[in-house]
Amino acid sequence: MPAVKSPSIPSRRRLGLPLLVLATAQLVISLDYNIVYVALPSIGSGLGFSGQDLQWVVSAYVVTTGGFLLLGGRATDLLGRRRVFVVAALLYAVSSLVGGLSESAGVLVAVRAVQGVGGSLLFPAALSLINTLYEEGPSRNRALAAWGAAGAGGLCFGSLLGGVLVDAFGWPAVFLVNVPLAGAVALAGSLLFPADGPPPGQRNFDLPGALTATVGITLLVFVLVHAPEAGWGSRTVLGCAALSAVSLALFAVIETRVGAPLTPGHLFGHRGLLGAMALTALFSATFSSLPYFLTLYFQTVHGYSAMATGAAFLVPALVVAVGTKAGERAVSALGLRTALLCGMALGAVGALLLALALGDHGSYARLLPGIVLLSLGQGATWTGMWIAAATGVPAEDQGVASGLASTTLQVGGAVGLAVLVAVAGTGTHASTTDGLLDGVRQAAYVITAGIGLGAVALLPFRTRPAH
Length: 467
What we know:
Blueprint: H1 16-34, H2 40-47, H3 56-79, H4 81-101, H5 105-133, H6 138-169, H7 173-176, H8 178-192, H9 207-230, H10 235-255, H11 271-286, H12 290-301, H13 306-312, H14 314-334, H15 336-357, H16 364-390, H17 398-424, H18 433-458
């Protein structure tokens, strides 16, 4: 007897179009993270940024995204997935328009912070929609692979698109390009996704927990982003670190005493989710940090232009997209644990080959074997870790589970990049090509070791195969 279809879930024939919207939302998030890099020199000269302050065009986005993800995840569960998705996409569109028209450095940094808030709402809302629209198993795995491919493509194509737009139209174009994309995503989401029920009353929302968690995580990410430049012993860094610790301690106390906590306690007993959170942190600290060092290598050691640097990331973009699909198939055929092990092993071998191939006179072709294996492993691991984060989590908790896993993704990336920059010494050696090359190579070796240790840590765990 055929199952009765819920009226709130689109028919299977229509699920392809909602997935296209969700993938486009992820494309917008990842493009927005990466597209401004090549525009930074033009932004700095156009708006009069000092050399020290220009980093906040990037850092303001990172800090607010990391700080508000947990709140965004819980808001998705309580206020409605479609509602939060549409509001977040509109926030992106409006802030991008203001950014493209801004004429002062302060306004642009504020715009980047607002875009970060939009990302912290849009990311868990989109992931929660995938995990509730698609049944656990092959259907959801395929959706996560397509969503992941869009995100990976945005990260890699962002540099190339940014170079094209800046050369053709100037730096405002890297913001204005988001306006029609995000606006279309908001409109399509309001039409295609299941309607939300009425939002709950205020008594069901953990406001003290939301405030303390957001302040604590935001300050933590700020410290991790700001400390490598300001110094770990600076007054600002120490003060923010202390405030972060106090806020997070208060959050932990509040969560044990409220009736409807921001993070339901039973989720911390969910072994799969905790493992996925650790994996997202490791992924961001290793796989996601490497493009930073490759950009330095291409532009400083080999003198690539912004356009050439963007073009150098085309191969990784395409291979990562293939890897996300391969990861989905591997999970179905081999089980989640084995698929993750294979993805991370490929990534570790690729990072090692890349480190060995880095040189001041080497051609791009010499890097390709490492780049291809690393990118395959990256795509497969990306798909697998989001499957792990969603598996076995009740539908009403999918938003906060996505928020938890994506928060560790952001914090892990900030920690990983800060550690790698310190270990590689790229800040101190930036004035000498040989010193920079040694630093980039050293970072690649550390990334290899980190991915390899993560794969070893997976060995004791057992997961049921996907059906």
